[in-house]
Amino acid sequence: MRQLTLAAVLLTLVANSFQIERLEDVLVYAVEPSNKIQKREVTDTTKKKSFNQFKEFVEDKLVQHTQALEHLVKLVQINEETSRQLLENLSNNIEQPKLPEKMEVISRRSFSSKTLTPDDPNKKISPWCGVALLCHRTYSPVCGYDDNFGYGKFDDVCHMLQVNCYWRYNFALVPSCRPIM
Q1: Which residues form the signal peptide (predicted)?
Q2: CA separation for the pair 122, 59 (Å, rounded)
Q3: Could you read off the pLDDT of 109-162 as tens digits, one per residue?
């Protein structure tokens, strides 16, 4: 008896599986027959017309982008000129900073005495001025070295930048006020 029930269940499953596996039973909507793809007919006049429209579109966009770029370049030039004038005015109004404390280095080669302040009549703005104007004073002593001045001790980094700006030096930070030989 058990075998008969098992056979009946299997027979029912197989019979129902054939119905489920048909595509029409699975799909909600019926399958429509496929349509043949129809191509447009393209003539020489439509090709030329389409090409001319594309060419005009590209030319218009190039003109628009060129005008926008010219406008941006003009704005940058105006901003650059304004910044240069502002920096020049501010650097001309900087008060004279005190020179750094000169650290004498005694060696066999230190026989020449150089002037402490450079006599540079050049009115060109020093590249250090922009940073020196915006620097915040900290009053933590630092040492710097310049080829013309030698070693110098400054109140802080801002003092060194102001000396570079006003006196036209090119001091760089060094770890010690005495050279290691």
Answers
A1: 1-19
A2: 49
A3: 555 555 555 555 566 777 888 888 788 888 899 999 999 888 999 999 999 998
Strands 142-146 and 150-154: antiparallel
Q: Looking at residue 98, what is its pLDDT?
A: 85
Give Cα separations from 100 to 38, 105, 112 (angstroms): 88, 15, 19
Contact criterion met (CB below 8 Å) for 24 and 31:
yes
| Containing structural domain, residue 120 | 101-174
Question: Is residue 148 assigned to a domain?
Answer: yes
CA distance 56 to 66: 15
Q: Indicate the number of domains in the chain.
A: 1
- CA atoms in the 13 A half-sphere facing the CB of 137: 5
